[in-house]
Amino acid sequence: MAQFHCSSQRKEDMKKQLNEISRTSRSIKGFITRYILNTKTVLDGESVKRVAFGEKQKNKPHKTILIVGETGVGKSTLINSMVNYLLGVESEDRIWCEIIETKGDQTDSQTHAVTVYDVFTEHCPFSLTVIDTPGFGSTEGKKEDLSVAESLHELFKSKNGVHELDAVCLVMFSSTVRLTERLYYVFNAVLSLFGNDVEKNIVLFITHASAKSNNAIKAIKESKVPCALTAEGDPVYFRFNNSHYEDFDDEKISDDYQASLKLLNTTMESFLTFLKEIKPINLKKTEEVLRSRKQLTASISNIQDKIKLMELKQKELKDTKEALKKHEKTIDSQNWEYYVNEPYKEKESIKKSFWSMFPEATCCRVCEENCHYPGCWWVSDLSWCSVMDSMGNCTVCTGKCHYTKHVKEGKIYVTKTRKVKKTKEDLKKKYETKYGDIKNFMSGIENDVREMEKEKIRLVKECHDCVILMEDIALKSDSVFTLQHLDFLIEKVKETGNTDQVQKLEEMKKRMEENSAKAFSVFKSMQ
């Protein structure tokens, strides 16, 4: 047997463990006998479960992988295949061990929680943790998809959770010829949980694969999904053949069974070589990078809103200045009135789009600002929202208010204008204390206009700096969202006269349009 480069002693240890499994495990007889492994429950929560097979050995190398894919793609069977490899099952054994029962009430499609499987065997040179996610795109709908992301985030943050990851495995059917909008969403929903340092650890698992099953590989290349690449620029992938798991009672599957185990051994040896060579992801660092990236993204939107509001206030002051000029001769002798377009904020329902599939936003009730939109759609406790710091204060809104001053709902603040009547008395209330004589009000208004222009320039620079920094740390999947802001930002930077910044932003826009062609086409198709 090729796996583990087994010595005779190790082979003997494997047989002893398989004999112990056959003696103590529930079995389902057939041409191939299935054994449902006895596991120990480590954690049994509503959203995250953890079970273990065998006893942990501290000095043994440990690998952790995350399995992600649509409902029905064969993730449970794939995990069981790995377990059989670790147990050293050979075709002549005519047995199949399952840590996940694939026939009955515990099927892949029935899984509603993120489940962590720790697999420890005495004779293996390493141990393995597999994080299994409920199938995305199930009949439960998008709310179920959101709970997957929230559960994973909880697992990564928890003191007793998973803090290091060796690989993120995207599972696909070998027959996949193109990424549907749904599948593209699935992958991006999961990849959004990580920083850009995870890309080299993302691999493809191809199920129901034949020797020439390259459709899925081509689909991934065309879609530009971030993943590890070979020296030739092709996605790193591993093939699994699920064909013999349909009917364990049929003797005709004998050849398929042997061929599948042979492919499994070859695939797992290649995969373990990959795991040995790749540097694991520090999820603590990833969580920090992710939070910084999301805070920057939220800041860009928030600053953009502030710039628009500032411009409307500048327009209101200019209208006031014109009214003051018009009534300059009668400024002291009589009362007079004028009209301005006064900016104000009003909450409106969020319109659905590609970037707001789950139309909710985190907004500050005190500052009346949109602090995170598109928001942390998987967050139920606002203290977990990415824009909140470790003390629970918002990093985005003007007042840096506590999360308890925020609300998450399907509405955002929208800046509008309304025609409002003003009088000389209104001007006096605003400027008399500071400037005394009403004849000096003009200089007061001009000073306010200049101060607002300075603040606008500061906000434009802040927005520019956020875009540059975010592009440095963002995954490719975020480029489309940044792209939506660039036209606005380029226009505002032009108004400040900074030609160097304009040139850099235009170069960034061109590069992002080329790199994000696939994602942008999906975005446009869903408007």
UniProtKB/TrEMBL annotation:
Family: Belongs to the TRAFAC class TrmE-Era-EngA-EngB-Septin-like GTPase superfamily. AIG1/Toc34/Toc159-like paraseptin GTPase family. IAN subfamily.
Domain AIG1-type G residue range list: 63-227
Alphabetized GO MF terms: GTP binding
Species per Swiss-Prot/TrEMBL record: Hemibagrus wyckioides
Keyword Oxidoreductase included in the entry's annotation: no
Source organism phylogeny: Eukaryota, Metazoa, Chordata, Craniata, Vertebrata
Annotated protein name in UniProt: AIG1-type G domain-containing protein
Keywords: Coiled coil, Nucleotide-binding
Coiled-coil annotated spans: 293-337
PROSITE patterns: SIGMA54_INTERACT_1
Keyword Coiled coil part of the UniProt annotation: yes
